[in-house]
Specification:
The complex is a heterotrimer of chains A (399), B (295) and C (325).
Chain A (H helix, E strand, L loop, with lengths): L2 H19 L1 E9 L10 H15 L6 E9 L4 H13 L5 E4 L3 H13 L3 E4 L16 E3 L4 H14 L4 E7 L2 H16 L3 E8 L7 H10 L3 E5 L2 H13 L8 E4 L4 H7 L1 H4 L3 E4 L7 H13 L7 H20 L5 H10 L2 E3 L3 E5 L5 E2 L2 E6 L12 E7 L1 H4 L13
Chain B lengths: L8 H32 L6 H19 L3 H22 L9 H23 L15 E3 L4 E3 H23 L1 H11 L1 H6 L4 H23 L11 H14 L4 H21 L7 H12 L10
Antiparallel strand pairs in B: 1-2
Helix pairs in contact in B: 1-5, 1-8, 1-9, 1-10, 2-3, 2-4, 2-8, 3-8, 5-6, 9-10, 9-11
Chain C lengths: L1 H13 L5 H16 L7 H21 L10 H17 L4 H23 L4 H21 L9 E2 L15 H23 L2 H11 L1 H6 L4 H27 L1 E2 L6 H14 L6 H15 L6 H15 L4 H10 L4
Antiparallel strand pairs in C: 1-2
Helix pairs in contact in C: 3-7, 3-10, 3-11, 3-12, 4-5, 4-6, 4-10, 5-6, 5-10, 7-10, 8-10, 11-12, 11-14
The chains are: A alpha/beta (399), B mainly alpha (295), C mainly alpha (325).
Chain lengths: 399, 295, 325
């Protein structure tokens, strides 16, 4: 190539790159702002997203990011309406968070249809990286398989090898019970029995009575939200944990523990992927978060939004555009992830974000120093073991 | 020991006892509703929200004023009852002459307002409220472990229910109330202050709901939605028992608790729907309810 | 004179000719709806309004013109939504067939539930409808084909009549508009027919109607079934618009919402529920970011509506214009 052509080409390339650098990006944080998941996601997720944009230095890099948010009220139809409107009318490029599996699956569908980006942080459905996997979706934070695996196998390893399930009688509860039972049995434990309670339930006394009578070492709570909180409260009342049976919350968040209070929740075993007090990095970030949120400490869902937005922006910077969702997600899978909250990790080909999971036990009031000091770490499940193997999900993106 | 359909009797008794305890809540709540409907002809859809407010007031008394559970048992019903009186004086009284529908809709709207405001203020995850130390622990009855607090709930609700029934059916005040709702003009002509009685009756019905709320606070999740799904079950209880019948709602409330307890043993998934099946059957066979007078 | 005008209007209506106010109302309504997508309104949003407007009008048929309050209409709406979604997804039904099937589902459920409900009156009837709706909810929660919490997702919009591709939102809009128009005109026809007159008589004075020899239970059941069938049409269409059928559609709060829409717009008016539905849907959409304040706002509307605007928006307008709306 002649020198002048080369120079021109280079100059043009530089100019194009510079022009492409001034990218406009619109992010939508869609979650529950008024219902049962408002505390674990809600406004906190929006704050987390904004922190990520600032920490990334988006403005300095010529990327203009706007954030919009909405309340899907945990309803798939509301979520789908908002997602459609955002993508069609409001030029939103990516949606983050979306707790409640049914809403997440709906948004997953729409993001794929419109070739946008969906980074889920709040929902549990492992189908998002399984049967319903999509080239436009990244599933951050956690899923039912990881929770089942974490709590199930880790507890069996500590000797709690006979299980009784208290399951919410709907698809999610069944799935959680099924996944955990499989893990328990694979780890050498036994499932002594199970009882299904109507969803949503108020009074679990009769089911807890059956669980007590079964003599199982662990009572697995295959439910979520208010059901779990109620069940735990009532278990404490019936002296279940005091009598020696352990309670395993299969889907429980920091905010639920706070709602229960340490007196009631002490001894509860659970799996999460983030806790504010894990290390210096998480502590520093959580302190900044708490400052903006009036003292509220971040849940793993909110942490996931932060990390997800950060990684998304890195992908945009690398790709130079934000409009082609599929390409951005492909870029997100290419670039290894690194953030102060989840450490080093990667996004797998099926959209699954890989990071370590932690088995926590809720402290007793005497062990806790007050405030948000709720957990002690029992075990760390390394990323390589924490997630469903690639070939077991039924995802079409996996060759 | 013999087994009833595969369930050992100990387990059965345990479940029935628990069912009885749940029945206490149904009984108090449906009692309040029956009082309000029977005496005022208002379908109080805000009852669930008022029950929830009773629990919240108990929490607020503890956290803002340091007043414990025992204070709350007395104060919360008074405070929420007061709110009920304000509602009645400002809004409900305009609707007495209209179709039942409007009372239902107004109170439904009020329920939404109360729920929404408390949700905005306190979140939805629930607030912690512990069992008072005097009632913690329990008795090992052999076939089950009965928490002291639950035993207290049964006792308290039985006392309150029968006290209310006695007051309305057997005392002079109750007679005045019943007369006033049947024929307010005539009773007013006798010099009794009918509007005042009506207002106080509504306040009393609301206070009953709040009392149930305080009873529920230590054992059920204390959140703004705690009354929402409960309210339709309670309505079903009142309809089965007979819309105007005080005794009917008490008996049906406890009875439903027992039936639910049984259902949970044999077919737990149906526990939340069995009440509606029963309600449909009762309404078709005995439309005024089991204890109701034909309207 | 007022009496003469009333008599004339009744005769005209009974003959099937529309009173002028209604004619104008329909022209304005359909005109606006035809123009909407071209005026920049988001088609999915307006389609949602139309579905709920039809649902509210179907409900209002029973309440406003029959005097029967059903607190379980979500059973027809949601039940039809599930059936239509399943038919479109698993059985390959084209949209018009799916909607027809949904309508039939609504009618069938309405026939069964109505048969039991109308045997009682007043609050008891309302409670029976609620009880049955709860059973439908329970069934929807348990039955495998409904997908439980997830609902039926990714419902396809197949070719209309097997020939026309209406899968884009813009094209599908006109399909929905056609259904809405047919539904509305059908409701209008039912109300302003000899059947409608008898229903009005039953609502005003049931014992008198009985003494005049009308088979009142049959009329009530017929109205109930029609109302349920049209609610089913609305639900089936909605499932195709959002390509999703979920538990929200059969939950009792959906029954409560349709009551709110009818009340807000004006019970007993033709256009009232349409306006009510439009306001409620718009409110939910535009205040979605305000979270729980939407609930509070809905509650306030209920309260103010009952205390001050019992006739509803259209009712008030109609009173002011002195024309039936």
């Amino acid at each position: 190539m002649k020198l002048t052509t080369f120079m021109t080409a280079t100059a043009t390339a530089i100019m194009m790159a510079a022009a492409a650098q001034a990218t406009d990006v619109k992010i939508g944080v869609l979650n529950d702002r008024s219902g049962i998941y408002a505390d674990l996601s809600g406004e906190g997720s929006v704050v987390a997203a904004r922190m990520a944009i600032e920490d990334f230095g988006a403005a300095a890099k010529g990327i203009n990011v706007t954030v919009v948010s909405a309340d899907h009220q945990n309803k798939p139809d509301v979520a789908s309406t908002i997602a459609r409107q955002w993508f069609d009318q409001d030029d939103v490029d990516a949606i983050f968070d979306v707790p409640t599996s049914s809403a997440a699956l709906a948004v997953n569908q729409i993001a794929r249809e419109k070739n946008k980006v969906f980074v889920n942080s709040g929902a549990a459905a492992s189908d998002l990286t399984g049967a319903q996997c999509s080239p436009n979706t990244v599933h951050w934070t956690y899923d039912t398989w990881a929770l089942a695996n974490g709590t199930g196998s880790a507890m069996v390893a500590t000797g709690a090898d006979s299980w009784f399930f208290l399951t919410a009688d709907y698809a999610f509860g069944h799935a959680l019970e099924r996944d955990t039972a499989a893990v328990v049995e694979a780890s050498g434990g036994t499932v002594v029995g199970a009882v299904r309670h109507p969803f949503p339930g108020q009074d679990f006394s009769s089911f807890l009575l059956q669980a007590q009578a079964s003599g199982a070492k662990v009572i697995g709570l295959a439910n979520a939200g208010g059901d779990t909180v109620n069940a735990i409260k009532q278990a404490s009342e019936f002296g279940i944990t005091q009598a020696g049976q352990a309670l395993a919350g299969l889907l429980i968040f920091l905010t639920d523990v706070r709602a229960l209070g340490l007196e009631t929740a002490q001894g509860l075993v659970l799996t999460e992927s983030f806790y504010w007090d894990l290390n210096d990095d998480t502590r520093a970030w959580s302190a900044r978060f708490a400052e903006r949120m009036g003292g509220q400490h971040p849940t793993m869902v909110q942490a996931g939004v932060y990390a997800g937005v950060l990684h998304y922006l890195k992908a945009i910077e690398a790709d130079g555009q934000a409009a082609d969702g599929g390409a951005i997600v492909a870029r997100m899978k290419e670039i290894p992830t690194s953030d102060p909250l989840f450490g080093e990790g990667e996004v797998r080909v099926d959209g699954r974000k890989l990071h370590d999971m932690y088995l926590f036990r809720v402290k007793s009031p005497s062990e806790s120093s007050g405030g948000w000091d709720y957990y002690e770490t029992v075990a760390i499940i390394p990323a390589a073991d924490a997630w469903r193997p690639l070939d077991q999900g039924g995802c079409e993106l996996v060759q | 020991m013999f087994e009833l359909l595969g369930i050992p009797p100990q387990a059965l008794f345990g479940q029935l006892l628990l069912g009885l305890i749940n029945g206490s809540f149904y009984a108090i709540l449906s009692l309040g509703l029956a009082v309000i409907f029977g005496l005022l002809n208002i379908i109080n859809f805000a009852h669930g929200a008022l029950y929830m407010m009773g629990a919240f007031v108990a929490w607020m008394l503890l956290n803002y004023l340091g007043l414990n559970y025992w204070w709350a048992l007395v104060l919360a019903p008074v405070i929420v009852g007061g709110i009920g009186i304000v509602i009645e004086r400002t809004m409900l009284f305009r609707l007495y002459k209209l179709d039942h529908l409007y009372g239902l809709l107004l109170t439904f709207g009020l329920a939404l307002i109360f729920q929404g405001l408390l949700r905005n203020g306190y979140g939805i995850s629930g607030l912690p409220y512990s069992i008072p130390p005097q009632l913690s622990g329990g008795q090992n009855l052999g076939f089950m472990f009965l928490p002291n607090y639950r035993a207290w709930v049964v006792v308290a609700s039985l006392v309150v229910c029968f006290g209310t029934w006695y007051m309305i059916e057997k005392t002079r005040l109750g007679a005045y109330l019943r007369a006033a709702t049947e024929n307010p003009t005539l009773v007013g002509a006798f010099g009794l202050n009918v509007p005042l009685m009506i207002t106080l009756t509504y306040g009393f019905g609301v206070a009953l709901a709040a009392f149930a709320g305080v009873l529920a606070a230590p054992i059920y999740s204390l959140n703004p939605n705690m009354g929402a799904d409960l309210i339709i079950v309670v309505f079903a209880v009142v309809v089965i028992g007979g819309m105007g019948s005080i005794m009917g709602s008490i008996v049906t409330g406890f009875g439903l608790g027992l039936v639910e307890g049984l259902t949970k043993v044999f077919y737990p998934e149906a526990a939340s729907v069995v009440i509606f099946v029963i309600m449909a059957i009762v309404l078709l066979l005995k439309p005024a309810g089991l204890f109701g007078r034909a309207v | 004179m007022a009496d003469a005008t009333q008599v004339t209007t009744v005769r005209q209506s009974a003959l099937g000719l529309m009173p002028a106010s209604h004619r104008i109302g329909f022209v304005v309504l359909f005109g606006l709806l035809l123009a909407a997508p071209f005026l920049g309104f988001y088609p999915v949003f307006v389609m949602k309004i139309m579905c709920f407007a039809l649902f509210a009008c179907a409900f209002n048929l029973l309440l406003g013109y029959g005097g029967l309050l059903s607190f379980g209409h979500a059973a027809f709406f949601g039940g039809a939504a599930y059936v239509s979604a399943h038919a479109a997804k698993a059985w390959g039904f084209t949209p018009e067939l799916a909607v027809l099937l949904g309508t039939a589902t609504g009618a069938a459920l309405g026939l069964v539930i109505g048969f039991f409900a109308i045997r009682r009156s007043g609050i008891y009837m309302t409670m029976i409808t609620l009880a049955f709706a709860q059973m439908v909810f329970f069934f929807s929660l348990q039955a495998p084909f409904t997908g439980g919490e997830d609902g039926i997702q990714a419902v396809p919009r197949r070719f209309l009549f097997g020939v026309f591709d209406i899968s884009s939102d813009f094209r599908f809009y006109f399909f929905v508009l056609a259904i809405f128009a047919i539904g509305m005109l059908l409701i209008h026809r039912i109300i302003h027919s000899p059947f409608g007159q008898v229903m009005k008589a039953i609502r005003e004075n049931e014992p008198r109607s009985v003494s005049l020899g009308y088979q009142v239970p049959r009329y009530k059941l017929a109205l109930f079934t029609m109302s349920a069938a049209l609610a089913g049409t609305a639900g089936a269409t909605k499932a195709l618009v959002f390509q999703l059928a979920s538990l929200t559609d059969v939950h009792w709060s959906m029954s409560g919402e349709v009551v709110l829409m009818a009340l807000l717009g004006g019970v007993g008016t033709i256009f009232g529920p349409v306006v009510g539905a439009a306001v409620i849907v718009a409110m939910q959409n535009y205040f979605a970011s305000f979270g729980a304040w939407v609930t509070v706002l809905q509650g306030v509307i209920f309260v103010l509506g009952v205390l001050l605007f019992r006739e509803g928006i259209i009712g008030v307008i109609g009173k002011w214009l002195k024309k039936p709306l």
